[in-house]
Amino acid sequence: MEVVSPRTLEEALRLRAAEPGLMPIEGGTDVMVDLNFDRRRPVGLLNLNEVPELRGWSRDDGLLRIGASLTYAQVRQRPLADTLPALAEAARTVGSPQIQNRGTLGGNLGTASPAGDSLPPLLIERADVELASVRGVRTLALERFLLGPKRNALAADELIAGIRVRPSGARQTFMKVGPRNAMVIAVVSLALAVDREREELRAAYGSAGPVPGLVTASTGERETFPELVAAAAEPIDDLRGTAAYRRHALRVLVGRALERCWA
Amino acid sequence: MARLIRTEKEVEGHYTEQWIVVDEDALDQWPAGPLQTVGKPAPRVDGRERARGEATYTADIQLPGMLHAAVLRSPHARARVRSLSLSSVLAAPGVRAVLEPGDSHVLTDEPGYHGAAVAAVAADTFAQARAALAQAAVEWEVLEPLLDPDQAVEKGSLVSEPNVSERGATERGVSEAEAVVEAEYRTQTVLHNSLETHQAVCVWESGRLDVYISTQFLWGVRATVAEQLELPPDKVRVVCNFMGGGFGSKNGPGEYTFIAAELARRTGRPVRCALTRREENLATGNRNSTIQRLTAGARSDGTLTVLKGDYVNSVGFEGWSPSTGGPMELLYACENVRVAEHGAKLNTPPNAAFRAPGFVEGTFGLECLMDELAARLDLDPLELRMRNYADSDLVDGRPFSSKNLLECYRRAQPHWARREEVRARSQGPWKHGMGLASQVWYGGGGPPSYAWVRVGSDGRVQVVTAMQDIGTGSRTAMAQIAAEELGLSLDRIEVSLGDTSRGPFASISAGSSTIPSMGPAVRSAAADAARQIVEIAAQRYHLEERVLSLRNGHIVSADGGSWPIEEITELLGEGQILGKGARGPNPTGMRTLTFGVQLAEVAVDIETGEVLVDRIVAIHDVGRVINPLGASSQVEGGIIQGIGHTLSEDRLLDPGTGTVLTQTLDAYKLPTIADVPEIVAEFVDRPDEHLTNLGSKGLGEPPIIPTSAAIANAIRDATGANVRSLPITREEMLRALRAAREREGLERTAETVGEVRSA
Ligand SMILES: Cc1cc2nc3c(=O)[nH]c(=O)nc-3n(C[C@H](O)[C@H](O)[C@H](O)COP(=O)(O)OP(=O)(O)OC[C@H]3O[C@@H](n4cnc5c(N)ncnc54)[C@H](O)[C@@H]3O)c2cc1C
What we know:
Helix content of chain A: 25-40%
Order of helices and strands of chain A: EHEHEEEHHHHHHEEHEEEEEEEHH
Mean pLDDT of chain B: 95
CATH architecture of the domain at 171-262 in chain A: 2-Layer Sandwich
Strand order of the largest sheet of chain B: 5-6-3-13-10-11-12
Radius of gyration of chain B: 28 Å
Low-confidence stretches of chain B: none
Mean pLDDT of chain A: 95
Number of domains of chain B: 3
Distance between the termini of chain B: 83 Å
Number of strands of chain A: 14
Number of strands of chain B: 27
Radius of gyration of chain A: 18 Å
Helix content of chain B: 25-40%
Strand content of chain A: 25-35%
Bound molecules: flavin-adenine dinucleotide
CATH superfamily of the largest domain in chain B: Aldehyde oxidase/xanthine dehydrogenase, molybdopterin binding domain
Oligomer: heterodimer
CATH superfamily of the domain at 171-262 in chain A: CO dehydrogenase flavoprotein, C-terminal domain
């Protein structure tokens, strides 16, 4: 199989436009599984690991720009971890140390799984996705980027360049329920923020609907919020758990997260 | 001297009476307790080699010109092949040969389970073999599968006659009881998932077949392959130097060996048939699921008056019905016991022996039932068990060759005393509790088994026997035994094993039998060599043999003389001292069993249903412990595997079609290191004075037996909920909690009604 390794974003975008059959690859922790299981047979791979513009993160006047290549291991590190604490917590629960060293935020967005662990923490921070192509750059609210189970709004000639987010500074947390303590895809997950400044409660669930979903309410609605979130979710029965359990667990997690972030 | 005797042979709980020729076991046992090498912790002699990737497993065997096989398996639980065309398979790149039903007895055109082997191909690479198989044109007639075990029993679809045994009179036992508990327990299907998948490499050379295979029984593979292929056994050589796990699923050659052998015969090339992880999860056996309908009755002081068990084993399309009722028959001094076991034949993948088959499942039911009884009688669970202690085997009235379960219970006391402290840790939704469960199992091994010992002029020793080390540390234990007998340090002993052409017959490594079967043979071979060294030394130093012995690398005399052993071995030049030894008979008229108890500390989140195991203490009685380090490894491994069985592992079938849904390690949840609690292993370490020259029993299986019941009992202690179904997923935990609340509600209403009435 052909592997093409562009050295600049511009070159990457040109290749993307010219050869839409090439599959972008960052850490490969989703791509390689798909190839091994013969779920996908791309003509070749577009290796983004050599593109410097996709690496690292920067802050400009309160606006964070996170490159698509940022790994979970990097997300866990300060000072970024202090700025986006729920995302850092989520990163700590991803797979195993090996997966955290390879797996990236860009890849998690690319896969757009209902169970993608970075997605709920980014949703409660109202993050935007930066999409680039030879035509230019556009940003899209994460909520609008996620279209369905493993479906996103990426156009055939676009690459995910990064994430833009203005950290709210709100107290926040991430919780994940799985059948064992490591290497699990969430049965259900939750990110929650208590935003005093905006008098807003924001919760986002994972693995409890076709896409991770954001639910908001005013801080005055604390009592009914667990129920509100549980009712908003659209879980299904699958190998990992039943819809009824997912809804129940979500209700419990929201209650606990509120308790943790209220003070 | 060889002797002809009639003796019992036991593997995995099956006893058979047979004539055998055995050698006398004339050696006295060593004194109890740690010796020079035996009884002291020894790191694995092959640890470095294995950690560095230098050890050659079957998966590492590469032979010149070797081809790779892939197997076409039934995608249906029950089907008939209407037509099969392999012509495009044969034409695919790299393909050298194909096999279809009729070409080998292991291929079928009427598969009875998802994953049954139908056809096979050999190609230059494994990728080519797999790609070629995708070209197979098969037309299936899909048939209705039988999946419900109760329905199978009703219809008489059984793998064997029901096994019913009764002692005493259970009717009377029930009427004498002052408290009776009845409950239905269920255990799920779990998979061995050995790290090294099932595989063999076969190569024919001038009418001789070499089989490199990941196996637990070299000689069993040799015998089965020779018989099936109508070869004299000596024309089959079986090799397994290092082995990546079997847990009972690698006791025989499996279909892959016959596929590789036939493809190798047809192509004249070596052929590897190695299963993929998916195939490993489909078609290499499993611990079958069970339904257990149990009754226990006791007097108010806790004396058992009756135990009854009706068991349904979901054996699968083939296989055997394990002794799920065994623990009920063996563990307690109950006079009235009735056990009925049914092996349901279903259109599901066949079971295979899995680390104490039957007893793991049966102990979950029995030991949970005992705790439910203790709760009913308001008795301490440990007290209840001690009150019903069995001093002899009530199945056939034989004495135990040794039993130190009471000592295990005694050592459990200080841990058990922490119960209040553990419960007091409960906070908010997290409830803490402690539970225990007992263990009984076989593990005495038996003859025949042989070993040779070779001493060279450099005073180094090679133990030669065609046994296998399946990853349990047998090499190390055998080296320790030889070192002890010869008074040498461990680093002077080499163990050569793993090849039927390079040593005498050796026992299967299953049924916890390696140490108790092989250990005594190695010791007797070492003693034979030691005797010869002493004979030579006596002549060299003009002393009597009886005043000489071997210690610390020296020949020492009773009057204080001491000579390095090399002074004698040097005299050999190119010559060698050859010792030979054999496993002697088992004690007649006695029952040899292993025992133990485990205590679990758990925390349960009663809102989400999450169960965390904090700590497990395991106290086992397996006679003399050869290597305490190896022994605690076995305990840790067994408990971790037991935790998987208890909390997360579940082989799931599509209820409509009977196809296996969990074929990868992503879907099938083995415990990870993050799920492993603190594990404390203790051993009674008293030699069984009736059993062989070692007094050692096996430990491969005992540690997994009581784990699930200990955890379930701890959960009851923490929450009051009876978990009766494995695995205890969060949903199952919440269900049990709901049932407990409803029961409590009912009892409370009943009480109020009672109060109103009596008022
Ligand atoms: C053992 C294991 C455990 C795991 N555990 C978890 C877990 O706990 N939680 C979790 O959320 N996930 C988990 N995953 C999934 C995976 O690790 C994550 O989704 C990870 O974020 C993917 O990142 P990656 O860089 O490896 O993506 P890749 O595999 O390289 O790519 C993933 C997808 O995104 C596309 N893509 C990548 N980069 C771009 C880009 N810049 N522009 C456009 N498209 C792009 C690719 O084409 C592909 O479709 C696990 C995976 C494994 C193998």
